[in-house]
Amino acid sequence: MRSTRRALAAVVGAAALLVASACGTGGDDDSTASKVEVFTWWAEGGEKAGLDALVSRFTTTCPGQEFVGGAVAGGAGVNAKQVLNARLQQNDPPDTFQVHAGAELLDHIDSGQIKDLTSEFSSWGLTGTLPEGLIETITVNGALWSVPVGVHRANVVWTNDQVLARSGILTAPKTLDAFIADLGRLRRDGIESPLALGRDWTQLMLLESVLISDLGPKRFTGLFTGATKWESRAVRAAIDDYARILDFSNPDRDSLDWPDAERLLIDGKAGYQLMGDWLAADLEANNFSGYDSFTFPGNGRAFQWLADSFALPTRAVNQAGGSCWLQTVASPEGQQAFNVQKGSIPARTDAPTTGFSDYQLAAADDWKSGVAVPSCAHGSACSQPWQNAANAALGAFSTSGDATALQSALAAAARQFVRQG
Questions:
Q1: Sequential DSSP letters for 191-214
Q2: Which of 79-83, 288-292, 362-366, 407-411 is predicted least confidently?
Q3: Once rounded to an integer, what is the mean pLDDT over residues 134-147?
Q4: Which of 87, 173, 223, 406 has the fewest CB atoms below 10 angstroms from its CB?
Q5: Is-contact 236 406, C-beta < 8 A?
Q6: Euclidean distance between CA atoms 193 and 69, whole angstroms
Q7: 32: pLDDT confidence band, cut at 50, 70 and 90?
Q8: Model confidence, pTM
Q9: Nearest to residue 327, comparing CAs of 108, 68, 139, 65?
């Protein structure tokens, strides 16, 4: 494959990438703005609305810089990451790109593809305004490498209130045992699959939530730093709890994506679904209002996060423009404008919350007061290869039910991929 932007753009059909090939400074001609290619996978819905809000602020705060969209739609970012990796390997980077904050950046850091932003964190007011758990997780080799703009919460259970009410379930369970009891109650009342579940990372999300309940936030986080051993009895007990819950999910889980599982919840074929808080906007888009939500039972104050962020490539054509985009992303006003549209919450705890929904306001309060916990399923706790290995192990367990094999596979993945510092 040719290394030019024109060739890569043809692969993904993104006309904006063709325009980006002309990126450069405007020189002495004030009528010619410097183009800034911003590479994302935000192409529609609330994501696109949030991006548009950032672009509006960028245009105002960065005069002389012209936004050029480099969105690659589809696959929840999978397609975009493939194109981005090809461009970075060919030394043909965009001026800035979207990435999940945390371990997902490890390969880019090791390859010297992105800039150390530690000093910018201080000058842009991010120091002291991001939760300690977030800063700890995104610090690699003593440095900071991307600017988080919006945070989603992963460890949330969503309900079909009508289904629960028919079984007399009127309050959220506080413990794993209480949750399992409610799942059993629904099945006895004729709900064959009380918990709606999909494949791959959705099953990893469920296992992570159970691990947080059984291990606590600190020991859970230690699973991805080497401080907690996957071979431990505590992890085996959590796997056994996971198996008990998995038994109450739909038998076709390995063939469903999360929106398909969501349909089971909406149609009243399930009472619960574990999913990140982007589900609220999707439920509303499907004209379903008979739902509620609660933190996964036993997780306490744990706020399992994933954060959209932006990095600055070391070989970007327009370093100044990319930096100005990141500064916009880092600002309290930029974070408010973006998140009010996307349905997430600001990474900064001091950002305005004007226009936020009731759920967003509650989530923002929990973000300030809770315990920030990363997610392997969403790239904040582990690298992509580690996530792939965990997904494969869980897929095998979904069929075999062999808890010993699952624990051995997860421990082997940790030995291969864990890194300290």
A1: -S-SEE--STHHHHHHHHHHHHHH
A2: 79-83
A3: 92
A4: 173
A5: no
A6: 42
A7: low
A8: 0.84
A9: 65
